[in-house]
Amino acid sequence: MDAKFSRRDILTKAAVFGAGAAIGGIGGFGGGAAYAEEKTAAEADYPVQYGHGGTQDDQLTSNLEWTSGEANKWPWPYTKLDPEIVAEKAYEGWYELGCGGTVIASILSELAEKIGEPYKSFPTESFVIFEGGVAGWGTLCGSLNGAAVAISLIVGPPTIDETTVLITTNIMDWYCHSNMPIYTPKNPRANKTSIVHTVSESPLCHASVGKWVKASGFPSSSAERKDRCARLSATVAYKVVETLNQWIDGEYNEGVSWFAPQMVFMPAQQNCAKCHGEKVPRPPLPEGKEWPKGY
Ligand code: HEC
Question: How far apart are CA 85 and CA 62, in angstroms?
Fold first, then answer.
């Protein structure tokens, strides 16, 4: 694989976060990437570090013998794709594979065509289970789940390069703050003259679909809602390809928009107040850490 992108690039240019600016987002839902600031590594308040103890020198996968076979080696090779071709595939594929399955299949099928193995043998359709926030539970939007799988497979293990986490967290953040769906397919199956757009302010399927059905008045079972989710999957697939294309060229330099484990000391999405109301609790403070100003 010919990635010209080094972890150092990311740490010095991008994988840092301006604490003061960040805090305005907590409890509300601040401007997302808009409030990320660039700092040098030395000034970094929140370099992205993955939590399970891996270091840069770790082997590719893990210390577990039973996960380290030849077949489990990753990352897999990447070559630049046309985001529009992938988005069109994702839109059509949604009607067969659901949101998560179609994001993965649209990207990996293009790579199977251009690169061949190991993509050809990858059972992309198995991810149909992501539909409806995994088996209809309305948890993480399947398209984001699919994006995370594709990114991790291609960019590599977070234990050796946190770019996987950086790109994924930024796509989650972008999803939450964007007026969706953005992508318009060539042959939409519904909402042909216009479509209602909403900002989910959450990566959860339930919140994302819920805001849209409320704003549009169409029930979840309607052709309009299905078209909306198919367009959303196409939008996410487009964004993933666009991002991977930048990354492979060494041009991915986004700052960290949100990384809760180091910002609020536990995993969380940003809109604390939506669930907690006005009194957002604080988790126990880890040793040697301080609460960010204003939080
Ligand atoms: C999607 C809903 C949701 C969001 C968003 C959310 N939380 Fe929570 N949080 C919960 C639930 C549910 C619990 C468990 C509460 C319980 O059992 O009392 C919890 C528990 C916690 C706890 C531990 C319980 C306590 O009282 O000490 C802390 C701390 C906390 N959340 C902080 C946050 C912060 C900070 C944010 C935003 C950065 C956040 N949460 C966002 C739903 C949410």
Answer: 35
